[in-house]
Design brief:
- Strands 4, 7, 8, 9, 10, 11, 12, 13, 14 and 15 form a ten-stranded antiparallel sheet that branches.
- The protein has two domains: about 80 residues, Roll (Nuclear Transport Factor 2, Chain: A); about 110 residues, Glucose Permease (Domain IIA) (Distorted Sandwich).
- Helix content is about 20%, strand content about 40%.
- The longest helix is centred in the C-terminal third of the chain and has 40 residues.
- It is built from one helix and 15 strands, in the order βββββββββββββββα.
- It has about 220 residues and is of the alpha+beta class.
C-alpha cells in the first residue's frame, strides 16, 4: 500500500462552463501520477508531437507530391521541422519493435504500445544509445535526435501512428488515456480521495472563518 504524509496530499479543481474538473496526485512505485476521483488517468497515453518543433512542414495526406520523387503518393504521417539534434521522445510507454536503418525513413525507431498502437520516428540523425529491439521505454524518454537521414530534404521528424495495423492521423486521433489506478490499489486510492476531500473542505471552512473575522475587524475599525 502506498505510504504518504501530509506534505504529499495534493489535489486541484476548477470549473469550466459549469463543469467541474478535478485532479488527485497519487504515488505508485515511487512515481507521482494524476487521476480523477474515479481513478482514471489524466495523462494521455500518446503524444501528438513527441518533440519541440518549429512548424509542421508536411501533414497527413493520402495524396501528396513528394518533394524529391516529384510524384503523388500517400504521406501517412506528420513532418515536424526542427533543428538537427533536437531530442525526440517516446510518445508513450511501450516496447521498441525496431531501431535501425529503414529504407527511405533513414534511421528509424518503431515502438509498440498497448491497445494496438505503434509509433514511427523517421529520418533521425542518430538513435540514442541503448535503444534497441525489446527495450521497454516510458513516455517522454529520449529515443533519438532529429536529422535528415534517408529520403529527406531538410531536418525533421517523420512521426507516424498505427492503430491495429492502419496508419492514422496523429493530429486527429482520439488520444487514449493512460492506465487507471491498478485494482489492487483502488481501495487505498478511494480512501486517499476521501481524506483529501475532507482536508480541502476543512481548509475552505478555515478560509471562510478568516474572511469573516477580517470583515468584522474592518467594521469595528470604521466605528
Amino acid at each position: 500500500m502506498p505510504s504518504r504524509d501530509m506534505a504529499k496530499y495534493f489535489a486541484a479543481e476548477f470549473v469550466n462552463n459549469g463543469k467541474r474538473f478535478e485532479a488527485y496526485r497519487y504515488e505508485l512505485n515511487g512515481r507521482a501520477y494524476y487521476f480523477d476521483s474515479k481513478g482514471r488517468s489524466l495523462k494521455k497515453a500518446l503524444m501528438r508531437a513527441p518533440l519541440r518543433f518549429r512548424y509542421i512542414s508536411s501533414g497527413f495526406s493520402y495524396r501528396r507530391k513528394h518533394p524529391i520523387l516529384k510524384i503523388f503518393r500517400p504521406h501517412l504521417g506528420v513532418d515536424y521541422a526542427a533543428p538537427t539534434g533536437t531530442p525526440v521522445s517516446a510518445a508513450g510507454n511501450g516496447t521498441v519493435k525496431y531501431a535501425g536503418w529503414k529504407g527511405h525513413y533513414g534511421k528509424c525507431v518503431i515502438i509498440r504500445h498497448p491497445n494496438g498502437y505503434e509509433t514511427y520516428y523517421g529520418h533521425l540523425s542518430r538513435i540514442k544509445r541503448g535503444i534497441r529491439r525489446g527495450v521497454r521505454v516510458v513516455q517522454g524518454q529520449i529515443i533519438g535526435y532529429v536529422g535528415m537521414t534517408g529520403m529527406a530534404t531538410g531536418p525533421h521528424l517523420d512521426y507516424r501512428v498505427k492503430k491495429y495495423g492502419k496508419f492514422i492521423n496523429p493530429l486527429r486521433m482520439r488520444v487514449p488515456r493512460d492506465r487507471p489506478v491498478p485494482k489492487k490499489y483502488m481501495a487505498d486510492f478511494k480512501r486517499y480521495v476521501a481524506q483529501t476531500n475532507s482536508l480541502i473542505a476543512s481548509l475552505k471552512e478555515q478560509q471562510k472563518q478568516l474572511y469573516a473575522s477580517r470583515a468584522v475587524n474592518r467594521d469595528l475599525r470604521k466605528d
